[in-house]
Amino acid sequence: MQLKQWCYFFFCVFLLNSCDDSDDSPTLPEGPATFDKGIFVLNEGNFGQGNSSVTYIDPATGVSSQNIFESVNEIGLGDTATDMAFFGAYAYIVLNVSNTIEVVNRFTFESVATIDAELNNPRKLAFLEGMLYVTNWGDGGDPTDDFVAVFGAQNFDLLTTIPLEEGPEEIVSSNGRIFVAHAGGWNFNNKVSVLAGNEVQKVIEVGQVPNSLTVAEGALWVSSAGLPDYAGETAGSISKINLSTLEVEKSFSFPDAGQHPANLTFEQGKLYYTLRSEVYSFSTNAEELPVISDFPIEEVAYLYGFEIHDGKLYAASANPDFTGNGKLFVYNLLGGNLLNQYDTGINPNGIFFNE
Amino acid sequence: MMKKSVYYLLFIILLQAFPANAQLESLQQLPEVILSDIHLHRSSSTNHVQVLKDSVLDQNQPALTSVLKFNSPLYFRENGPGMVASASFRGTTASQTAVIWNGININSQFTGQTDFNTILTSGFDEVAIRSGGGSVLYGSGAIGGSVHLNNRFRFNRGLQNKIRLKYGSFDTRYGSLDSEYSNERLSLQFAAARHQSDNDFRYPDSDKINDNGDFSNDQLALSIGYLVDHNNTLKFYTNYFDGDRGFSGTLTAPSKSKYEDRNSRNLLEWNSYFGSFKSNVRLAYLDEHYKYFENRGREIFSYGKAKTGIVKYDLRYNLSSKAGISGLLEYQNSRGEGTNFSGINERNTGSAGLLFIHDLSPLKYEVSARADFSDRYNSPLLFSAGVTYAFTNFYSAKLNVSRNYRIPTFNDLFWYSGGNLDLKPEKSLQAELGQNLHFSNLKFSLTGFVIKTEDLLRWVPSNSGLWLPENTKKALNYGLETTADWQKEFAEHEISFSGTYAYTKAVDQSLDKDLIYVPAHKITASAGYRYRNLSAYFQYLYNGQVFTSSDNNYSLPGYSLSNLGISYSFFGRRMQAGLEMQNLFDKAYQSMPSRPMPGRSLYSSLTFKF
After folding, report:
1. For chain B, what is the domain count?
2. Do residue A51 and residue B531 have CB atoms under 8 angstroms apart?
């Protein structure tokens, strides 16, 4: 009896070994030793799957290196990267679902620190006077626990948290102040908070769902998407806030409820924005919004990241299934002809220039 | 077990000394008397049906996921032990496997699928896996196949009880009571089970633990069968599941969310026999309710509730002893509400079907068709046609062609941001050819299949950034399934072996890439041995590599797992003590990205029968 039992056991073990797959760890692409003078693309990855990554593109050689954080540090970056910014020699990457900020050396991408204190659903970041400001939703379902966390930018110590209205998203610093756009998180909101000296100095009402901020010639410009169709669709708008008076000085409403502007960016004396996959521009002293687009960005399957830099427009496109690799398309800002395209990681949502 | 109950019924029938003719008639009625899902064994002869034995169900208690994972060709993706688990059958999507409880489709109205970790196998007498299309009989989602959870009634057995207790790694506790009472006309079954675990295992090759993955599940079930007279039987089944679980964190993200499931299922059934007619009326009421807490420490949650009423009528007429025709009528009303819906949404569906079975031994064929009428979608005409031929007494072959569907779910239709009322059902056309070998000790089957699916539902972002479901994709699935069972008894030794192997290729035809989360190869194997009071088993599972992205650039490696169990019976088998080791070789593996599964774990169990 014993013998037979062991025969079966060995039979099964044999079967097991014959089918065993080699579990090699995935081979990491060989990245350049340093990452100066190039473009970082932040790839969000998929919620819950811990597959956020950073792509580095060297425009001189046209070579793109995938997953550089993991290549350098031999651990994954984290879950759902939402923003990246530079301060001194460091780059800071917000990981929304991981509830962390990874700090790396911006030239070598070696990990410097992981900030995880007092973050809850962190979204976007900005710097002011040596401090790091991070917008946090808190619990998405709770409209009352949203805040900005403030850290020392060099020592990563938590300095304070500032409670804010619901859904703080985009954040910029200008003229010694921090401006936070409240898109609303899981809900909708229509405010811009002004922070000075770690206090909320003013809350300014703008259009529904403010989704991008840009500073131009002494003013803060805000694009607001408007409400989506399931919430009683409203047209988007663009507001100009005077940085000295903190008043809305000018506001443009889009004529059609189906128009939801995004990606407002100031470049070389003009303001650019997108409506679906069309790029529009207007001058800072225009009295009306443009009717005709500058050009379409046709190659983009789903516009997920947008930047204008040195006369070029960078549009990051997610794979239509949102599970595969995306692409970065580079267009000439004048005329909109496609100059270059690069492979990225999964769901590229931000483009950052290291120089 | 089935055999035994047949004998008991025979016994009753003989006792009552019916005329000879009535005896024969009653015997033909047996499936209806002991089992509610009359079509699974009677009208599925051209499909492959794999019935899992009691011993198999005992080995892989408590959740349905572990039973099927180790004993069937179904592939599962799990967010961790006890977490959300969805099935893929023949490479189809999670909502293309129907779960059928005593003949009633219980897939969620919201997701169209069943979370296999929210069903405990305690209290079910039979778990069966029916491969291939079954929408004519079982409705939406029976595309890849269906999983059947059945209760059988036994009569004249008095009172019998079984208590099972289990304790093991990660503070996992399980307890169940199965009681049964029957006399000549009445049969009662009651089952209660609780399964809970801290589930805080250390991730292999990491210093992190599985955080916030605790769960606690309770299930209560009651079945009552009553033989009113020899022409009428009444049956009632009820099943209640109450599960609370944290949604566990991952390698790269913490979690503090919680999910609650409260599902109840009720079925009343009346069978009557008159002349050559057999009539079967079923009334079912299903209730599903979930709550999702983003932060388990707070009382803020989102929820969904759906209530479904089903009326089914099945009238069979025996044209002769060899041929029968059945008419099937069904009406279903579902109402759903919740945080993500505005108001109460409703769906009404009616269907009418015809089924013809003709037994011309050694040839047998079945033809059936069904038409659906709904206020929410336009259904294709469903059909199934199959033939089986017994070439010899040990070799038979089957051929089956069918058209099946999966209807849009409440989420697809009514989700507050994106629900689309213009959706069509997913449609599939499939063919399979099976061969069976059946010797006294050995059973072997080999089935090849092709499934072509169109109008696959997929949530895609629209231009305005809103996600909307659309009927966009086409898929082609093909592959092979084999099952093998062998057993031998000699002297006081009992040896058994069973195994399954599935080869599956599923192609997204719009991208010309493999569908995600479909392993090309899946193998299960188990060997059992018994000598007097000692028994032991070994189980093996291999899941091949799966792609996790539609561009096939990302994948999870394949893995193999082994379990080993040993038990000893005392006091004339009234008590049994067992030890079980899962993931014997301490393999590190992931069923979903960033979610490591546990390494080696140990469980002990005690079973009492009285």
Report:
1. 1
2. no
Question: Peptide bond preceding B62: is omega within 30 degrees of 0, i.e. cis?
Answer: yes
Residue at B18 is within a domain: no
Residues of A in contact with B303 (CB under 8 A): none
Token pair, residue B63, equals: 């959740």
State the pTM of this model: 0.89
ipTM at complex level: 0.86
Contact with chain B for residue A106, Cβ under 8 A: no
What does the pLDDT look like over B473-532, one tens digit per residue?
Answer: 899 999 999 999 999 998 899 999 999 999 999 999 989 999 999 999 999 999 999 999
A29 to chain B, closest Cα gap in Å: 13
Nearest CA in chain A to B544: A21
Nearest to B190 by CA among B200, B182, B179: B179
A10 touches chain B (CB under 8 A): no
- B174's enclosing H/E stretch is strand B172-182
| Under 8 Å between Cβ of B62 and B51 | no
Interface probe for A, chosen from B252, B339, B486, B534 (most Cβ of A below 10 Å), is: B252
Tell me the residue length of chain A.
355
* Per-residue model confidence as pLDDT tens digits over B418-467: 888 889 999 999 999 999 999 989 999 999 999 999 999 888 777 666 78
Q: Tokens 């002011």 appear where?
A: A128
Which residues span the domain enclosing B328?
Answer: 26-246+253-285+297-609
B64: domain CATH number is: 2.40.170.20
The answer to whether A295 and A276 are in contact (CB under 8 A) is no
> Residue A201, by phi and psi: left (phi above 0), alpha (psi -120 to 50) or beta?
alpha
- CA distance readout (Å), A78 to A93, A114, B183: 10, 11, 62
